[in-house]
Amino acid sequence: MTQKPLPKGLHLDTLAVRSAVDKSQYGENSESLYLTSSFTQPDCETAARRFSGLEDGFIYSRFTNPTVASMEMRLAAMEGAEACIGTASGMAAVLLLCMGLLKSGDHVVCSRSVFGSTIKLIASEFGKFGVESTFVSQTDPQEWKDAIRGTTKLLFAETPTNPLTEVCDIKVLAEIAHNAGAYLAVDNCFCTPALQKPIALGADIVVHSGTKYLDGQGRVVAGALCASEAMVREKFIPVMRSAGMTLSAFNAWVVLKGLETLGLRMKAQSEQALALATWLEAHPKVARVYYPGLASHPQHALAMSQQNGLGGAVLSFDVQGKTPEEGRKNAFQLIDHTQLMSVTANLGDVKTIITQPASTSHGRLTEEQRLKAGIQQHLIRVAVGLEHLDDLKADLSLGLDSL
Ligand SMILES: *Cc1c(COP(=O)(O)O)cnc(C)c1O
């Protein structure tokens, strides 16, 4: 069914519930879930035109599906990007990014503090195919500048980082990338477009794990890349068509519905996180709190200007621990005394999650790599959800009072 086009200049919260492909002939108000692997063609001439790209039309769900297209339209609109391509997971998005933009001999500069699997994929897997990489400080732009080579094609950043919430300056990194004739990709998983719009700050590509806040209720694994229409069409769709790191229609539909409440959730969960971080910072059993919304955070001012005045929903804190053994014992004891929070390494859920990064998300690092990344045994990460604040404080108190 052809629709009235959306008015121009709509706000993120409106785009989040209204951007989608046209309704079917039945006029469904909630977007349809098209569970089909292929699409029938009206005749051979039309099929030939569609297969050769001369005419738009759905062909085969490895690279074209209306439910996935709705998710892509909606996320692109929210990020302020021209286009988006959905992927099977956040890591599949990083894979597609690297396959689409890099070849043997190219060089990548990446923050040392990005998601662990991103480091492994770029350094080890793409290293095998002759892609070179340098890992630099999250917060010192001079290190990024010094790492640039003639062959540098891509700068990759993530902000704020997991679990220490270090913030990098997207505008400054975009300038460094563009002066070198390279692209800047930003993993926007922690902030989402509700808080931070990397493209408006100069980034060329936004990387997403839809598994986290975009779905927001811990149901599916999904991912996406947002970029210019030309980059998506010329660099990413051909790789998707050959390699098939495809987002399933079902998972796309779940994320599509999740996006409708993204703005509300990010605001509510950020407010809860700030309240919890403030309370923890004043607690006698807590040694240090890491949260961009706190005035004590080293990049507080940058975070507030770059993130729409909100700190996001992830915070970390150190309990006491004079030795690594004592720190680990205290962290485990605190977590095991909570009764409400989920003990799992995921984040981006409405259920609050508590983890000890050193033994879970960062457990594959050596003790030396971990210390270099600042992740000590006494560090605890909380990804704050939507339970009542008093219940979250009471739950953490069970742990803190046990120490
Ligand atoms: C989880 C995560 C990823 C990977 O996403 P998956 O959907 O799990 O593949 C990438 N970057 C960040 C920042 C993440 O938190």
Can you walk through the features of this model?
By secondary structure, the chain is α/β, with parallel strands linked by helices. The chain has 2 domains: 12-259, 3-Layer(aba) Sandwich (Aspartate Aminotransferase, domain 2); 263-401, Aspartate Aminotransferase, domain 1, CATH 3.90.1150.10. It is 39% helix and 14% strand. The chain is built from 15 helices and 12 strands. A 7-stranded mixed β-sheet has the order 1-7-6-5-4-2-3, sandwiched between helices. A 5-stranded mixed β-sheet has the order 8-9-12-11-10. Strand 4, helix 7 and strand 5 form a beta-alpha-beta unit. The protein is globular, with a radius of gyration of 22 Å. The mean pLDDT is 96. The chain binds pyridoxal-5'-phosphate. Pyridoxal-5'-phosphate binds next to helix 4.
